[in-house]
Protein backbone atom coordinates (compact mmCIF):
# COMPACT_ATOMS: atom_id res chain seq x y z
CA UNK A 1 0.00 0.00 0.00
CA UNK A 2 1.31 3.45 -0.93
CA UNK A 3 2.17 5.80 1.90
CA UNK A 4 1.46 8.91 -0.15
CA UNK A 5 -0.96 10.66 -2.50
CA UNK A 6 -0.01 12.90 -5.42
CA UNK A 7 -1.93 15.94 -6.63
CA UNK A 8 -1.04 17.53 -9.96
CA UNK A 9 -1.71 21.19 -10.72
CA UNK A 10 -1.47 22.52 -14.26
CA UNK A 11 -0.48 26.19 -14.08
CA UNK A 12 0.20 28.81 -16.71
CA UNK A 13 2.08 32.11 -16.76
CA UNK A 14 3.62 34.18 -19.56
CA UNK A 15 2.42 31.62 -22.11
CA UNK A 16 4.26 28.76 -20.37
CA UNK A 17 2.45 25.72 -19.02
CA UNK A 18 4.00 24.02 -16.01
CA UNK A 19 3.00 21.31 -13.58
CA UNK A 20 3.31 21.51 -9.83
CA UNK A 21 2.98 18.35 -7.74
CA UNK A 22 1.95 17.91 -4.13
CA UNK A 23 3.13 14.76 -2.36
CA UNK A 24 1.11 14.17 0.79
CA UNK A 25 2.11 11.47 3.24
CA UNK A 26 -1.11 9.59 4.13
CA UNK A 27 -0.11 8.91 7.73
CA UNK A 28 1.38 12.21 8.87
CA UNK A 29 -0.08 14.68 6.31
CA UNK A 30 3.45 16.03 5.86
CA UNK A 31 3.55 17.54 2.39
CA UNK A 32 6.16 18.26 -0.27
CA UNK A 33 5.64 20.49 -3.27
CA UNK A 34 7.64 19.74 -6.42
CA UNK A 35 8.77 22.61 -8.69
CA UNK A 36 6.54 25.43 -7.42
CA UNK A 37 6.34 27.68 -10.45
CA UNK A 38 3.44 30.15 -10.25
CA UNK A 39 -0.27 30.71 -9.58
CA UNK A 40 0.28 31.21 -5.87
CA UNK A 41 -3.41 31.74 -5.07
CA UNK A 42 -4.41 28.47 -6.79
CA UNK A 43 -1.70 26.54 -4.95
CA UNK A 44 -2.47 28.06 -1.55
CA UNK A 45 -6.21 27.44 -2.03
CA UNK A 46 -5.55 23.74 -2.72
CA UNK A 47 -3.21 23.44 0.29
CA UNK A 48 -5.89 25.05 2.48
CA UNK A 49 -8.62 22.80 1.07
CA UNK A 50 -6.51 19.70 1.77
CA UNK A 51 -5.66 21.02 5.27
CA UNK A 52 -1.95 20.37 4.85
CA UNK A 53 1.19 22.38 5.39
CA UNK A 54 4.28 22.27 3.22
CA UNK A 55 7.25 20.66 4.98
CA UNK A 56 9.48 20.26 1.92
CA UNK A 57 10.05 21.95 -1.42
CA UNK A 58 11.66 19.64 -3.97
CA UNK A 59 13.33 21.50 -6.83
CA UNK A 60 14.39 19.57 -9.91
CA UNK A 61 16.52 22.47 -11.19
CA UNK A 62 16.99 26.21 -10.81
CA UNK A 63 15.11 27.65 -13.80
CA UNK A 64 12.63 30.36 -12.80
CA UNK A 65 9.63 28.35 -14.03
CA UNK A 66 10.44 25.71 -11.41
CA UNK A 67 11.45 27.83 -8.42
CA UNK A 68 9.44 31.08 -8.70
CA UNK A 69 7.05 30.38 -5.78
CA UNK A 70 9.75 29.18 -3.37
CA UNK A 71 10.01 32.49 -1.49
CA UNK A 72 6.22 32.84 -1.19
CA UNK A 73 6.00 29.29 0.18
CA UNK A 74 8.76 30.01 2.69
CA UNK A 75 6.95 33.14 3.86
CA UNK A 76 3.90 31.02 4.65
CA UNK A 77 5.67 27.80 5.73
CA UNK A 78 8.77 29.17 7.42
CA UNK A 79 10.20 25.81 8.49
CA UNK A 80 9.86 24.09 5.11
CA UNK A 81 13.12 22.63 3.83
CA UNK A 82 14.18 23.40 0.27
CA UNK A 83 15.95 20.56 -1.58
CA UNK A 84 18.10 20.89 -4.71
CA UNK A 85 21.19 19.14 -6.02
CA UNK A 86 24.53 20.44 -4.81
CA UNK A 87 25.77 20.50 -8.40
CA UNK A 88 22.86 22.74 -9.45
CA UNK A 89 23.33 25.10 -6.51
CA UNK A 90 27.06 25.43 -7.09
CA UNK A 91 27.04 25.74 -10.87
CA UNK A 92 24.18 28.28 -11.08
CA UNK A 93 24.82 30.01 -7.73
CA UNK A 94 21.34 29.10 -6.48
CA UNK A 95 20.50 29.96 -2.91
CA UNK A 96 17.36 29.84 -0.81
CA UNK A 97 16.58 30.02 2.86
CA UNK A 98 16.39 26.53 4.44
CA UNK A 99 18.32 25.04 1.50
CA UNK A 100 19.58 21.48 1.76
CA UNK A 101 22.03 20.48 -0.96
CA UNK A 102 21.56 16.95 -2.22
CA UNK A 103 23.87 14.41 -3.82
CA UNK A 104 23.09 11.51 -6.11
CA UNK A 105 21.17 8.74 -4.33
CA UNK A 106 20.55 10.72 -1.14
CA UNK A 107 17.41 9.64 0.67
CA UNK A 108 14.92 12.03 2.25
CA UNK A 109 11.62 11.38 4.02
CA UNK A 110 8.29 13.11 3.81
CA UNK A 111 6.57 11.71 6.86
CA UNK A 112 6.65 7.93 6.33
CA UNK A 113 7.35 8.29 2.59
CA UNK A 114 10.87 7.63 1.29
CA UNK A 115 12.25 9.70 -1.57
CA UNK A 116 15.40 8.80 -3.51
CA UNK A 117 17.20 11.75 -5.11
CA UNK A 118 18.73 10.94 -8.49
CA UNK A 119 21.19 13.29 -10.20
CA UNK A 120 20.20 13.52 -13.88
CA UNK A 121 22.37 16.14 -15.64
CA UNK A 122 21.26 17.13 -19.11
CA UNK A 123 18.56 19.77 -19.03
CA UNK A 124 20.81 21.59 -16.58
CA UNK A 125 24.15 20.57 -15.14
CA UNK A 126 22.62 19.57 -11.80
CA UNK A 127 19.09 18.45 -12.67
CA UNK A 128 17.65 16.05 -10.12
CA UNK A 129 14.75 13.59 -10.21
CA UNK A 130 12.84 12.39 -7.16
CA UNK A 131 11.84 8.72 -7.01
CA UNK A 132 9.07 7.43 -4.74
CA UNK A 133 7.62 3.94 -4.58
CA UNK A 134 5.42 4.37 -7.68
CA UNK A 135 6.18 7.93 -8.82
CA UNK A 136 9.08 9.68 -10.51
CA UNK A 137 9.25 13.49 -10.63
CA UNK A 138 11.55 14.50 -13.47
CA UNK A 139 11.14 18.25 -13.96
CA UNK A 140 12.42 19.02 -17.45
CA UNK A 141 14.67 15.98 -17.75
CA UNK A 142 13.00 15.17 -21.05
CA UNK A 143 11.04 17.35 -23.44
CA UNK A 144 8.88 16.27 -26.32
CA UNK A 145 10.63 17.56 -29.49
CA UNK A 146 13.11 19.83 -27.75
CA UNK A 147 16.13 19.66 -25.45
CA UNK A 148 18.27 22.21 -23.64
CA UNK A 149 22.03 22.29 -23.74
CA UNK A 150 23.90 21.50 -20.54
CA UNK A 151 24.18 25.20 -19.62
CA UNK A 152 20.39 25.50 -20.00
CA UNK A 153 20.70 28.55 -22.26
CA UNK A 154 19.61 27.43 -25.72
CA UNK A 155 16.68 25.38 -26.96
CA UNK A 156 17.37 23.09 -29.90
CA UNK A 157 14.61 21.32 -31.80
CA UNK A 158 15.13 17.66 -32.61
Automatic annotation (TrEMBL):
Keywords on record: Hydrolase
GO MF annotation terms: hydrolase activity
Stored InterPro entries: Metallo-B-lactamas, RibonucZ/Hydroxyglut_hydro
Domain Metallo-beta-lactamase, residue spans: 17-158
Source superkingdom: Bacteria
Pfam families according to UniProt: Lactamase_B (PF00753)
Protein's recorded name: Putative hydrolase
Amino acid sequence: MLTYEVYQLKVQQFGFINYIYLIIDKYTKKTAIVDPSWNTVTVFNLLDKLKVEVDAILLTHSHIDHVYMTDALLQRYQNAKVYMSDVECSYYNFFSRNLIRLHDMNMIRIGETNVTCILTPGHTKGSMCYLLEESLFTGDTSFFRRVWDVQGTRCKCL
